Amino acid sequence: YACMVDLLGRAGELRGAENFIKKMPFQPSAVVWVALLGASRIHGHLELAKRTANCILELEPYNTAAFVLLSNIHAAASR
């Protein structure tokens, strides 16, 4: 599932990737959400990144990847 989210995200289909996650037959892991967060960074989608980071941090409060990616997205948006 994470690979599919990554593939959709890299192709710019962020809405499709998010819908794919929501329709998964089980609760997505943090790995799946990190794939979407990475795609949000690539495409500069700040609102999706915030929502995605919240999902990651609910599952894994000490996930440093979420903090780093979100920080990088904010820094890029400020330029």
Question: In summary, what is this structure?
Answer:
By secondary structure, the protein is mostly helical. 77% of the residues lie in helices and 0% in strands. It has 5 helices and no strands.
Give the distance, in angstroms, between the N- and C-terminal Cα atoms: 33 Å
Oligomer: single chain
Strand content: under 5%
Largest sheet: none
Number of helices: 5
Which structural class do you get from the secondary structure elements? mainly alpha
Model description:
By secondary structure, this protein is mainly alpha-helical. The protein has five helices and no strands. It has helices spanning 2-10, 14-22, 30-43, 46-59, 64-78. Helix 2 runs antiparallel to helix 3 (30-43). The longest helix has 15 residues, at 64-78. It is globular, with a radius of gyration of 12 Å.
Key terms:
77% helix, mainly alpha
List the helices and strands and how they pair.
Elements: H1 2-10, H2 14-22, H3 30-43, H4 46-59, H5 64-78
